[in-house]
Amino acid sequence: MIRTTRVCRALAAFTALIATAAVTACGKEGSPPVKGPAADKLPTYQVDHGFQLPQSPTWKRAKKRGYFTVGAKEDQPYLGEKDPATGTYSGFDIEIAKMMSASLGFAPKTIRFRTIASANRETALQNGQIDYYVGTYTINDLRKKLVGFAGPYYMAGQSLLVRKDENDIHGPQDLAGKRVCSAAGSTPYQRIKTDYPRATLVAYDTYSVCVDNLLTYQVDAVTTDDAILIGYAAKVPDELKVVGKPFSEEPYGIGVPRGDNALRFALDDALEAREKNGDWKKAYEATLGLSGVPAPTPPPIDRYPAS
Amino acid sequence: MNVLTDNFSIFAEGFLGTVELTVYASALALALGFVMASFRVAPVSSLRVFGTVWVTVLRNTPLTLLFFAVLLGLPRFGLVLPFKVFAILALGCYTSAFICEALRSGINTVPKGQGEAARSLGMTFHQTLSMVVLPQAFRSVIPPVGSTLIALAKNSAIAGAFSVTELLGTYKTLSELGYNIVWTFFWIAVGYLIITLTISAIFNVLEKRWGVPR
Amino acid sequence: MTANPVESTALYDIPGPHTRRRHRMYGVVSTVLILALIGWVLYLLFDTEQFTYTKWMPFEYKGIQELLLRGLGNTLKAFAMAAVLSLTLGTVLATGRLSDHRPVRWISAMVVEFFRAMPVLVMIFFIFVALKVQPLPALVAGLTLYNGSVLAEVFRSGVNSVERGQREAAFALGLRKTQVMTYVLAPQAVRSMLPTIISQLVVALKDTSLGYLITYEEFLHAGKLIASNLDYDLPFIPVVMVISPIYIGMCMLLSWFAQWVSRWERRSPKTEAVEVAPAEPGTLLRGGVPPTAPRP
After folding, report:
1. Before B111, cis peptide (omega within 30)?
2. Which of B63, B183, C58, C66 is most buried by a 10 A CB count?
3. Which Gene3D superfamilies does UniProt cross-reference here (chain B) (predicted)?
4. Interface of C with B in 204-223 (CB under 8 A)
């Protein structure tokens, strides 16, 4: 008993020492160097100050509090990434969210981003945790029953990310017996499960863990939309490559609360205008374009009727 | 109600996953717990210190952190194993600290005089241990070991969040398919109750057969 | 309790000179083995380049330190809320179980037994997913339901462990039921059960890390955000090496406090009337049966 207590006490004192050292240590200002998009080159968007949308309950709620709360991803380089040190978000999806906010009459600076995991997106929109969601959100009919979709603003397609030294995988047909990683509950996960059942699926809640597992030989390929994969390949170009042609069409939309058609159509209009005046292209070039892949033509907007 | 009948195979798979995790992790926890308990009562001080550190650290580590460290940290050492094995390792090591304490306090309930009497009869260490001390200790450790293993079965739910097939994880698949989430959770709860009640029934039988009222 | 080399135990006799020499040899061998194990782990750490500058560099920055501190603050916030609410719920449920009215007793017993039998994570996920609650309230509610139920049992056995004479004497003095409970039974019960209560709070503190699984931005979540960043070369091991001592340290401080309280209890002359089983702090595992004090 006495000995136990003594060991306990010694360990407790040691950990307390480490804790205080961590707390009192003076740190460097700023954030650690990143390889992602450089913030000073990001485009600015003109704010439409006179914009009114009283038919939309979401917009009215945002007006009352003075800013939009936007759901996003935090771990997708070049798309939606949160800097752990500063807490700021960056990437193509984030730029889309900013230009939408500007078009709806709120300065992009005022946006409060919140990280929402893939599995919780519908819940977050339904119970009003966020006003709209921009984060590689594929439009499909099943989800249309739960939430509304503005856009699409980008046409992605499912592809495969493998290690540089991998020579056996050239497309989804080569996945038999291989370990493939994707995010639990995501569209790519479901597709591999139904179309390529011979692949061994591994699911995580975030893609960065998948990429980590790929780098440590835990899995043989990571599959999801090419936009996400290109972002990762650009971060670690010496070790990773994207192979094959996209084998699906993933139209990315902006998720809005289901009943709020006024907001949905307003976002459709705003997207169309931003695509026309070149802001969309500028946003692409400042983010995903850094990977060297030239800007595609944005897909046509799907104004499906209110239901 | 038809959540269960329509998706019986999904539930069965998850249920068996939890059972498998529980059984293997229990075996590991009992084995490791026994080793650590014998370290902690050994006459060699370095082994005692090792056992004490093992127990103290693991008992004060959140299981989620341990899962995080084992499932995401160990592959960084180049140790590549299936996630299920990692989950069993994490659960087993964590629970072994509690098993160790249960066993050790069981050994401590055996009066000193018992061992002295055995030795004075000329019994060897092996005989003292296997014929005098362990049978008595065994009886008093049944209830605490039982409740520790029930806790292990319940803790295995955390593995589901780290992409191991088990009961709690089935809710994700079923909510994707559009089933009523409340009923899904109802059947998940029933599944866990079946497992925990089975364990406690097993230990009740053990206690009836070998337990002694003190 | 631990085997002391100079005293005999149930297992070992007092060692003679020959045995002592043998034990010393075992000691040297096992020390060498343990050191070799530690050395091997250290070698692996160096070999897999866990101590490179890129992996530790993030911790130098204020932003990262603040992120970790914010996470730690959120963990402590969830713990404080869960602790206060569990103690409240525990009191309510214990009162219910000790009630004179059969239906109240029955319902309380049902609630306590159900929530003690459910994995706490299932409850947290149910509240988060099915009831669509925000992460922090979902985490706190799950922890409260579970720990409150366990604490209810602790309180109840504490009250039952107070010597019967105390209750009888109080009734004989003409105190009413509530007065007997609040002035005589509850103070003694809380005092005798304090170490167990604190040990249960350690469980609650450990379980706040489950918030990580429902995207509550607590300590482990902050760690994961740093660890899963490709810019910092995925510093999983360094993150674990930084956050686990803090977690373990916090839990250990609380466990040690429980131990201190129980020792202080045993010394205190005021509690001599109540014979209490020495609650081994920390032994309480989730779902484990709380140690009950022997009835007089």
Report:
1. no
2. C58
3. MetI-like
4. 205-210, 212-213, 220, 223
